[in-house]
Amino acid sequence: MNVRMNKRSGISMSIWVWVIIGIMMAAFVFASAQQNIMMLIVQLNNQQVVEKFNMIYNTANEICSMPKGSRYGKEISVNRDVYAIYVSENDGPPVDSAPYYIENLNATSGYYMCYQFEVEHDFDTFHCKKTACNVTMTYIGAPRKGSKLERIARLTGGVFNYKVSIVKTGKDNVLIEAKPVLK
């Protein structure tokens, strides 16, 4: 009779081991799927930012070839993954104080329009394209953490909205002003 009890308890123990292994595998699969979904969302958000950057870049280049006073306006939104969309005198990274430039609506001038994502900031990775004329542009992106703009954006899901105005101001000059829109 003792032998039977041990066999039963042994079988019952192996079932529990398989149940625990199954739960652990399910948790691993769920965590992996969740991580893949999050990475996909980040990639989609970044692709939207690249599309908006290209729209601003292409429009600025079009306006370069138009008469003085030509203008274009559009509202855009960027997520908190954007470190900066900016203009530079050379094919280089944004200023170290880009979040303050964004918060204070500071502008820079140059012949290169660039963008950088937050995750790339530590790796000094940026993406630039040469413009057809000299561009002066307000920095666009995520303001510094704790700022008024950042707190407002947190209430709207971490999205920063801007009204972008592109104007040809001279023979070889385009002005791109980006003003925050509070929604």
Summarize the structure in words:
There is one protein chain. This protein is α+β, with helices and mostly antiparallel strands and 183 residues long. The protein has one domain (2-180). It contains 4 helices and 6 strands; from the N terminus they run H-E-E-H-E-H-E-H-E-E. It has helices spanning 2-64, 98-103, 118-121, 148-155; strands at residues 71-79, 82-88, 107-117, 127-138, 159-170, 173-180. Strand 5 and strand 6 form a beta hairpin. The protein is elongated. Residues 1-6 have low confidence and may be disordered.
Fraction in beta strands:
25-35%
Q: Span from first to last CA?
A: 76 Å
Share of helix, binned: 40-55%
Q: Report the order of strands and helices.
A: HEEHEHEHEE
Main pleated sheet = 6 strands, mixed
Q: Number of DSSP strands?
A: 6
Provide mean pLDDT, rounded: 86
Can you count the helices?
Answer: 4
Radius of gyration from CA coordinates: 26 Å
Structural class: alpha+beta
Give a short overview.
The chain has helices spanning 2-64, 98-103, 118-121, 148-155, and strands spanning 71-79, 82-88, 107-117, 127-138, 159-170, 173-180. With 183 residues, the protein is an alpha+beta fold. It has one domain (2-180).
List the helices and strands and how they pair.
Blueprint: H1 2-64, E1 71-79, E2 82-88, H2 98-103, E3 107-117, H3 118-121, E4 127-138, H4 148-155, E5 159-170, E6 173-180
